[in-house]
Specification:
- Its main location: membrane.
- With about 290 residues, this protein is of the alpha+beta class.
- The protein folds into 2 domains: about 200 residues, Alpha-lytic protease prodomain-like; about 90 residues, Alpha-Beta Plaits, CATH 3.30.70.
- Helix content is about 70%, strand content about 10%.
- It contains 8 helices and 4 strands.
- The protein has a 4-stranded mixed sheet with strand order 3-2-1-4, with helices on one face.
- β2, α8 and β3 form a beta-alpha-beta unit.
- It is elongated, with a radius of gyration of 25 Å.
Length: about 290
Amino acid sequence: MRGTIRMALGSLVVACLVLGLKFLAYRMTGSLALYSDALESIINVAAASAALVALRIAARPADANHPYGHTKAEYFSAVAEGVLIVLAAFTILREAIPALQRPSTHLVPLPGLLVSVAASVLNGLWAANLLRAGRAARSPALLADGRHLLSDVVTSLGVLVGILLARATGWHVLDPLLAALVALNILWSGWHLVRDSVGGLMDIADPATTQRLREIMSQHADGALEMHDLRTRQAGQVTFVEFHLVVPGHMTVTEAHHICDRLEDAIQAEIGGANVTIHVEPQEKAKHHGVLVL
């Protein structure tokens, strides 16, 4: 968890640097498209701050009031980031729509574009780093931040290409038009962030994880008869796994416990940080509902 907090702190530093570079590019060029790009970077700073706070909360151990820990705090960060992105999109549209009717005719200076390119390169390198760390730590907050930065990079590149086309063709309406397209892209990104994060808060099961668990149980449950009522949910970096395990009625508690230990070890080896709860049932008391034959 300390590694994810360090990554979130790094995100905040990078977001501030990129914000400064993008506003410098806007001041050097006066481009509305670059202004919209800079406005999104304000959201990056706010999102990085929210992710840092959420990860610090998520790192707290379980207590009497939170027996399952605080790991779901990461999802609140991702939801907040999505909402901020949507607000940024509407701000950009408010600036772009009037400019579509009266586009500026001045040429965007190349030095300002080079500053924007430098900001995009920095953003892209850090986005790749965040996504790699987020997948390794299975952190929703880091993954949300990484995906957002990656969409920001794509948007920035599109803006730069459009501005260069406007310089080459004299179609100055491309500047506000690109700003509007940036806003729509940001809306789409924000919607996906909110949807995925709300899904985590609502304990949506991952079919791929469920299938992996069934395969693990089939391979490591020697001595048991059946498994049913498998449930999984993700809470930040922790995957909670619950199921009923049916064993022969004559099996001793010690023997059944050995099977459970073997299953827990196999699941945790495959899914790092898994929290496994197994309810053991004798064969004659089994519910036989949704049964997987081992």
